[in-house]
Design brief:
The complex is a heterodimer of chains A (109) and B (167).
Chain A (H helix, E strand, L loop, with lengths): L2 H21 L3 H30 L8 H32 L13
Helix pairs in contact in A: 1-2, 2-3
Chain B lengths: L2 H22 L3 H21 L3 H26 L11 H22 L19 H10 L2 H22 L4
Helix pairs in contact in B: 1-2, 2-3
The chains are: A mainly alpha (109), B mainly alpha (167).
């Protein structure tokens, strides 16, 4: 497949995530939209790693493998982020009995 | 149009449709279920690109572990569509407009890139196989790998400390 199509797919997925973050007030939905954006980046990294592999396999049989390892590390960081983020959301719910992010403006007091 | 192309367009449509459903679903549980569909479709893309290890890890970590965590938290809080706070409709419109503008700018910037006509290998190439990824991970990338294990430990401690009742 042409890399173009993967590029546009990843852009569309990322922008859907951005729209979700900007239009929803539920903290959990916003968190899921952030996961959507991370996945758009992962998809593009894998597609580009396969593109560079196709272009550079003659010089180096492992060309492009770095992209897939970065995806692996992004998944590690995303898993750590989700565990801490959900703990924060649970704490927010315990204090305010809501997951509305507008309650978070109390943090300034 | 061959089978790879048909699969690519099908998976792309499924990915975008379920991603949109994540954003517009009123019920948070439906959002989580649509997000699982999105992750399955993205895993399909990885397997189509012959990145089998990443495809399976994506299924296990994202669709398996992270989404179950989300589902648990949502069920713990007893959220439903009625209690969902809504943004003002002008703010929603502004958000959609901003996202659309971002997409417009990105597409316009990348439309004329030189690499656009290059081919991403599908169904061939062996860099996505577990043997080669494992070799690279434990030789070239062994230091980041160990550091990520420390990151996991600190995230685990942080989650427990934050989630603890009382103080």
């Amino acid at each position: 497949m042409k890399i173009e199509y993967y590029l546009y797919l990843a852009i569309a997925l990322f922008c859907i995530g951005v729209v979700g973050v900007l239009t929803r007030r539920n903290a959990i939905i916003i968190f899921m939209c952030i996961e959507l954006m991370l996945n758009a980046a992962n998809l593009l990294l894998v597609a580009l790693s396969k593109m560079y592999h196709a272009a550079g396999v003659a010089q180096n049989p492992m060309a492009g493998i770095d992209g897939q390892l970065f995806v692996f590390f992004i998944m590690v960081v995303a898993a750590a982020e989700v565990s801490v983020g959900l703990a924060i959301i649970v704490m927010l719910y315990r204090n305010t009995h809501s997951v509305d992010i507008n309650f978070l403006n109390r943090l300034k007091h | 149009m061959n089978a790879t192309q048909i699969l690519f367009w099908f998976l792309s449509g499924l990915t975008l449709f379920s991603a949109i459903m994540v954003v517009i679903s009123k019920n948070p549980v439906h959002s989580v279920l649509w997000l699982i569909v999105t992750f399955f479709a993205i895993s399909g893309h990885y397997i189509l690109l012959n990145a089998q290890f990443i495809g399976i890890v994506n299924l296990i970590v994202y669709a398996g572990a992270i989404m179950v965590l989300f589902l648990f938290v949502i069920m713990l809080m007893n959220l439903n569509a009625h209690s969902e706070p809504q943004k003002h409709k002008w703010l929603k419109l502004a958000g959609i407009l901003a996202g659309g503008c971002l997409m417009l700018v990105l597409v316009a910037a990348l439309k004329t890139a030189d690499q656009n006509k290059m081919i991403a290998q599908t169904q061939e190439g062996n860099i996505g196989l577990i043997e080669n990824l494992g070799k690279a991970l434990f030789t070239e990338y062994v230091v980041p790998f160990e550091i990520s294990s420390v990151l996991f430990l600190s995230a685990m401690v942080g989650a427990v400390v934050i989630g603890k009742k009382g103080d």
